[in-house]
Design goal:
4 strands; four-stranded mixed β-sheet; 8 helices; Glutathione S-transferase Yfyf (Class Pi), Chain A, domain 2; alpha+beta
């Protein structure tokens, strides 16, 4: 029986997990909960047998788990998309933290500011550009973030990068390494087809609190 991945019917935290699953050809069912009828989720939240019920969730046979990072690492271990040497594990741990910081900076400007033009300009100048400069340097003479092999971290970073490109279409004009990275992941087998399909939700964000690209 195919595993079930549950999440709001937006890209959000589920998109990197789905990219990985599409890339490896892992069959799965996506249970998308409608934000316009949030009771659809909250009505069943405490009935599905999760120790810490939340979205996203995964049901895979006897395994039931929540939290996006736990889910993507679960599949990464299954499909050898995870660091194995001590050196690469350390680098992967660092990337986990840095990508989280990258996400939280974006979430802050998306949810916690008025979302006006000046807020976006300040975010790009003070937060986004310095962070991209570091990633650009990190990707010099390498194709992937960790140990120069494809891992789950690449799918996570790709989605965060893609969200910022949607916000700023010219974002990568001065970042050739990041442009190559984005193109490389976007054109992976499975990922390319998934992103071109109507199965990938169009909205990045959720609900009225999101000031930009919300449902």
């Amino acid at each position: 029986m195919a595993p079930t991945l549950g999440y709001w019917n937006i890209r959000g935290v589920s998109a990197p997990i789905r990219y990985l699953l599409e890339y490896v050809g892992q069959p799965y069912e996506f249970k998308g909960y409608d934000l316009s009828n949030a009771q659809e989720w909250f009505g069943v939240k405490e009935t599905l047998g999760f120790e810490f019920p939340n979205l996203p969730y995964l049901i895979d046979g006897d395994f039931k788990l929540t939290q996006g990072n736990a889910i993507i690492r679960y599949f990464a271990r299954k499909h050898n998309l995870i660091a194995t040497s001590e050196k690469d594990i350390i680098e992967q741990d660092v990337m986990d933290g840095v990508i989280t910081e990258f996400l939280m900076a974006w979430v802050t400007v998306t949810y916690a500011t008025p979302g006006k033009e000046e807020d976006l300009k300040r975010y790009r100048t003070e937060n986004l550009t310095p962070m991209l400069q570091r990633f650009e340097k990190h990707l010099n003479n390498r194709e992937y973030l960790v140990g120069n092999k494809l891992t789950y971290a690449d799918f996570q970073f790709f989605e965060r990068l893609d969200a910022n490109i949607i916000m700023f279409p010219d974002l990568l004009k001065d970042f050739p390494n990041l442009k190559k990275f984005h193109d490389r992941i976007a054109n992976l087998k499975g990922v390319k087809e998934f992103r071109a399909s109507d199965r990938l939700p169009k909205s990045l964000n959720a609900g009225p609190k999101a000031k930009w690209n919300n449902v």
